[in-house]
Each structure stands twice: as structure tokens, then as C-alpha cells.
Design brief:
heterodimer; A: 211 residues; mainly alpha; 2 strands; 2% strand; B: 129 residues; 7 helices; 55% helix; globular; disordered C terminus
């Protein structure tokens, strides 16, 4: 904390409620999906649902509080920048992987065998590619193409080992590993700071429970 | 496999309608999280669960007028109530679209039913203040 600034309990409360708690919660959600190798990649929009740059985890109204926090604690700029810097290559790798999977013959061959109509083929290939990228497990039967996915999951996943797809898959896994480290380090740092700030200011991390 | 019809209660229905609304206007992630956390305090619904709900609601679903009224009432100070008009318009388009069917649930029939207490489970939810 900046040596000559004492932050009032009101401000600490606002930081907890609008910045630190939502941010740590969202980063924990990132960590959780990464642990399950579910990147939450959406092939239709070609981006992640859960993994976003740090600032995007906070609503617009909280941004001034976030800026105030960073102005007094610039030491958190580097780990935040590291998070965002490691996210971009993962998104690029997933995008390349998506393209490689869509172009791979394996997926279409299986779908042909399953007699998927040509008019539905592109949609199905894109959906299967999404499940492969997100390492989907056995799907409940109410998912649109659960029957096909569950029957051929191993075959679809085998596409990751083919020449056309493997380099993109390797790049994705490497990028995911470094991003996961950045997420974990940022969570650790922010959690330690939050705890220290709570104890030193006497302001509880959580004010009250709702629901 | 044949799709099984499902009965949908106020909590899941509000969550589903909110998700559809948030998707329709590409609401930023932080705002989505904030709204969904408010709808489901204590039981956050992250992306994998959101996807499951979206897929589940592709099956024929039934609900009652009570549930619909409860869902569209919205809590006075909720985030959705700030955009109530837009949200309700969007939700009504979904509700009359045929995917979710409203089934009658007359009070007289409810009172005659010996399992009356169970009927409350259909509409019980923390959505009302």
C-alpha cells in the first residue's frame, strides 16, 4: 500500500464489494474451467465465454474503484498485465485449432457415417469442434447431438493427433498451461492482499450473506 | 432419442429468460455475471451450467400462469427491473414462441388435490419479495 495513504473503511468496503470480491470470484471461475480443460470456447463467435481480460470481469460502474485501487497499488499492474498477455495467445491458439478441426476429414467422415444431412453438416462440424476444444465429456441426452458425440467421442478426439490438427492442439495446450499459471498467481496475490487489508482495516471480506 | 417434456419452475425459467435476453444483446460478461448472480444468489451459474440449461430448454417444456406471472413480476430493486420493459418484451416473444407451453393450473383443482402441498413446489421460489 502507498506508504502515506490510509484508506478509510468505507473505501475498503467498496473495494471488496465492487472490485476484489467480484474479481477473485471470476478468476476462480477461470481457474475452475481451466482445471477441467473446458476453455468455454464458442466456435460461433470465436471467443471464450468465461476467459476474458481482467478489466472485463468488472462492470463499468466499478472501473473508477478499480483505477483507484491500482493507483495506490501499482504492484498489481504486472500480474494483471501478465494475465491478459497470456490470454491472447490462448485465444489465437483456440481459433487456429477450431479452423484445423473444421478442415480435418475425421469429423466429417464420422458425421457422414451417421448420415448427417449435408445441410446440417457445417453446423454439426462446428459444434463437434467446440466439444473437442472444450474437452466435453459424455453429454446428457438432451444435448442436440449427444447421441453422435457420445458414440464417437474418442474418434472425434483422435483428430487432435492427426498431422493437420496436432500442431494447433499442442500450441493450445502450451498456451493454456502458461495462462493457468498466470491466473493462479493473480488469484494468490489478490487473495493475500484482500486478507491483509481486511485484517488491518477491520473490514470483513464479506459484509453479509444474501439469498 | 425422443425428447422428454419437462416442467419448469420460476427459478430456472427466470434464469433461462435472462440468459436468452443477455445473449440477444451481447451483454458484456461482467454485467451478465452480475445479473445472474443476483437472480441466483448463493448458487452461481457459470458457463458450463448455462450451456446445460440452454440445451435442456430445447426440449418441450411446460409451465403455469402462476410461474410466468412470478417470473415477469421482477423484484422492484433488481437489475432486471431497470430494463423491465425490454426484458419482458423479449421474454414474452420466447414464451409465445411455442417452445415453452403454458398449462392450466386452476386453484379449484389444486385445492381438491390431496397432494395439495406438492403443488406449492411448482411456484415456490425466492423471486418474490
Amino acid at each position: 500500500m502507498a506508504a502515506n495513504v490510509t484508506v478509510s473503511p468505507n473505501i475498503v468496503r467498496a473495494w471488496f464489494d465492487t472490485v476484489l470480491n467480484p474479481l477473485i470470484r471470476s478468476l476462480a471461475a477461470e481457474q475452475n474451467v481451466l482445471a477441467h480443460r473446458n476453455f468455454t470456447w464458442k466456435t460461433e463467435v470465436r471467443r471464450f465465454a468465461t476467459l476474458v481480460p481482467v478489466r472485463e470481469h468488472l462492470v463499468d460502474e466499478a472501473q473508477p474503484n478499480f483505477d483507484q485501487f491500482l493507483s495506490l497499488h501499482p504492484e498489481y499492474n504486472p500480474p494483471i498485465a501478465e494475465h491478459d498477455r497470456r490470454l491472447a495467445p490462448l485465444a489465437e491458439a483456440c481459433d487456429r485449432l477450431q479452423q484445423a478441426l473444421i478442415e480435418a476429414e475425421t469429423l466429417r467422415k464420422v458425421l457422414d457415417r451417421e448420415k448427417v444431412q449435408q445441410s446440417d453438416m457445417d453446423f454439426c462440424v462446428r459444434l463437434i469442434a467446440e466439444y473437442v476444444i472444450n474437452d466435453a465429456q459424455t453429454l446428457p441426452d438432451y444435448y442436440t447431438i449427444a447421441a453422435i458425440w457420445n458414440r464417437h467421442r474418442d474418434e472425434f478426439r483422435a483428430a487432435l493427433q492427426t498431422n493437420g490438427v496436432s500442431p494447433a492442439w499442442q500450441a493450445t495446450m502450451e498456451a493454456a498451461g502458461t495462462f493457468e499459471t498466470a491466473v493462479r498467481e493473480l488469484i494468490d496475490k489478490l487473495s493475500a492482499f484482500r486478507n491483509e487489508l481486511s485484517l488491518s482495516s477491520g473490514v470483513p471480506i464479506v459484509d453479509r450473506l444474501t439469498g | 432419442m425422443e425428447k422428454r417434456p419437462i416442467v419448469i419452475d420460476a427459478g430456472p425459467l427466470l434464469t433461462y429468460l435472462a440468459l436468452q435476453y443477455l445473449n440477444s444483446n451481447d451483454t458484456p460478461k461482467a454485467r451478465r455475471d452480475q445479473i445472474l448472480r443476483e437472480i441466483r444468489p448463493g448458487s452461481p451459474i457459470d458457463e458450463p451450467e448455462q450451456e446445460r440449461l440452454r440445451q435442456l430448454l430445447r426440449q418441450p417444456a411446460f409451465t403455469t400462469a402462476h410461474v410466468i406471472a412470478e417470473v415477469l413480476k421482477l423484484r422492484e430493486k433488481s437489475l432486471l427491473s431497470r430494463i423491465a420493459g425490454e426484458f419482458r418484451r423479449h421474454s414474452l416473444d420466447i414464451l409465445i414462441g411455442g417452445a415453452i407451453r403454458e398449462v392450466p393450473c386452476p386453484i379449484e383443482e389444486m385445492c381438491r388435490d390431496r397432494t395439495f402441498a406438492n403443488w406449492f413446489a411448482i411456484t415456490a421460489s425466492p423471486m418474490l419479495d
